[in-house]
Design goal:
Layout lengths: L5 H17 L3 H29 L2 E4 L10 E4 L1 H28 L5 H20 L3 H20 L5 H31 L4 H11 L3 H18 L8 H7 L2 H26 L2 H7 L2 H21 L4 H22 L2 H32 L10 H4 L1 H15 L5 H15 L3 H27 L13 H19 L5 H12 L4
Antiparallel strand pairs: 1-2
């Protein structure tokens, strides 16, 4: 009986636990957050297995069938994203207990875990829902909790970063709401399946074109597509380590999923790329993000900020795959969505280990850490190799698929740029490696390795970077199925 309610239970359980955390002290609050994350992981794994064996699952909230009621629809695309979000959230919350105690004031720990669970609820709800307005509601839940989580950073600049994110995030959410409202005005429905069926009859109207434009710009701001990325570097740099890892590995990935859902499921590839010619805008912006953000990353002295600009470049890879609008391109986007979460999750957790031990992630403070924190820096190097795209890592799989997709379209200069951007990644990853392994430690400081409770989640993600670089049956194969579903028409 409970299996039939998994689509909604994976969202409801973290939502119920979130206010309960406020009433608890540190350890019980952490245990509740761990329970909520582990429960969502179990639900996501069962849902993905069910979808792969039996096809898409529909769930009507309160027994009200769509389009009258809110429906959750789980297909291969969002089941894959649900699994990703749950895996990262579980790894991060295991890591969080020691890291949160180090970086966040003692009186705020229960509030942190409450906001964390609300953020997880929002991300899961965005991914699972089949209703456009319900998606907006969950988007606001995840966004508002993200602003609070970022503001808990010990650096005073975290407040400025949170406020900047709030302003830009609110603008993006407003654009999305306007797009949803215009779509409802023309079709009379908010259900995504109904929207997909009704939009073709009104697709030649100015209103629907405006709705498409508002939605695309609003979602692009949420995914931090250049030049709408200005909120991201500061948010990642000054947030607590666990928050940076969570947001970098999940929030922008869920936003990319939303873009995929609207472009290919709701509006359809024909309208998005043949009628609206979105690729004319998306390809140059994607290439600019890949090149410019990689160059800017080289000159950063704060390593978290460096990886933040790297994330802007990696988002460019994902949107480039979308703009190719072929099966291989979409497969590359969905695979990279998963793989990049593993890379950045591992890298930011490794930086959290450094922050825990030395209280800084400035690149000069990494001098000598290769000898003093060997396991932490080995994890960083492994994540960096994956970011570069070295064979036997997940980064290689992503970039190989994207190069194949570009060559399918005859875009060999784009393939060359992808390789060149990987070489730029070598430069900024090497700057950290050089400091850690080839520079003496500053002064007489002796710094020990990070605690095991921080190293285990970090190395779990590092191991995933290698495992899924060798075995692509879960990533590339499932992503291929999801890509064909997206290009096949209905949700």
């Amino acid at each position: 009986m409970i299996e039939a309610h998994l689509p909604v239970l994976q969202v409801v359980v973290p939502l119920i636990l979130a206010p309960a955390c406020v009433l608890c002290k540190d350890v019980p609050a952490w245990l509740m957050a761990l329970l909520g994350s582990a429960w969502s992981l179990l639900c996501a794994a069962l849902l993905l297995a069910a979808v792969l064996h039996h096809g898409p699952l529909d769930y009507a909230i309160g027994g009200w069938p769509p389009p009258w009621g809110i429906a959750y629809r789980i297909d291969t695309v969002n089941a894959f994203v649900l699994l990703l979000v749950s895996v990262i959230a579980t790894a991060v919350v295991i890591y969080a207990r020691r890291s949160v105690a180090s970086e966040i004031a003692a009186g705020q720990h229960s509030l942190f875990y409450s906001a964390y669970l609300l953020c997880l609820t929002g991300l899961l709800g965005i991914t699972a829902t089949g209703d456009a307005f319900n998606l907006f509601v969950f988007l606001e839940i995840s966004s508002l909790s993200s602003y609070a989580l970022i503001a808990m950073g010990s650096d005073r600049r975290a407040l400025t970063a949170s406020f900047q994110y709030l302003i830009m995030g609110t603008i993006g959410a407003t654009f999305i709401l306007i797009g949803v409202g215009l779509s409802y005005m023309m079709t009379g429905t908010l259900n995504m399946a109904d929207l997909a069926a009704r939009i073709p009859t009104v697709s030649d109207t100015t209103t629907m074109r405006a709705a498409f434009a508002f939605l695309t710009v609003g979602i692009s701001l949420k995914i931090a597509l250049l030049p709408l990325h200005l909120w991201l570097p500061n948010a990642y740099a000054y947030a607590p380590s666990v928050v940076t890892a969570l947001l970098a590995a999940t929030a922008t990935k869920v936003a990319v999923y939303v873009l995929l859902r609207f472009l290919f499921t709701v509006f359809g590839a024909s309208f998005s790329f043949a009628t609206m010619n979105l690729d004319i805008v998306l390809v140059p912006l994607s290439l600019a993000a890949i090149a410019a953000a990689s160059l800017v990353a080289i000159f950063q002295s704060n390593v978290k900020r460096m990886l933040a600009y790297s994330s802007v470049a990696q988002i460019g890879y994902m949107t480039l795959g979308i703009s190719l609008s072929n099966v291989t391109g979409l497969t590359a986007t969905i695979v990279h969505l998963f793989n990049h979460a593993l890379m950045k999750g591992a890298l930011f957790l490794a930086l959290g280990c450094v922050m825990y031990r030395i209280g800084s992630v400035h690149i000069t403070q990494f001098a000598g850490l290769g000898r003093e924190m060997p396991w932490t820096m080995a994890a960083f190097v492994a994540g960096g190799l994956s970011l570069i795209g070295v064979p036997l890592t997940v980064g290689f799989i992503s970039k190989w698929l994207l190069i194949l997709a570009a060559l399918e379209n005859g875009w060999w200069p784009v393939a060359v740029l992808i390789v060149a951007a990987s070489l730029l990644a070598v430069v900024y990853v090497w700057r950290v490696v050089e400091q850690a392994y080839f520079k003496p430690p500053p002064g007489e400081a002796t710094r020990g390795e990070a605690p095991l409770s921080l190293l285990l989640p970090t190395w779990a993600l590092v191991a995933a970077n290698v495992y899924f670089g060798l075995d692509t049956s879960l990533t590339a194969d499932v992503a291929g199925i999801a890509a064909r579903e997206l290009l096949g028409g209905g949700p």
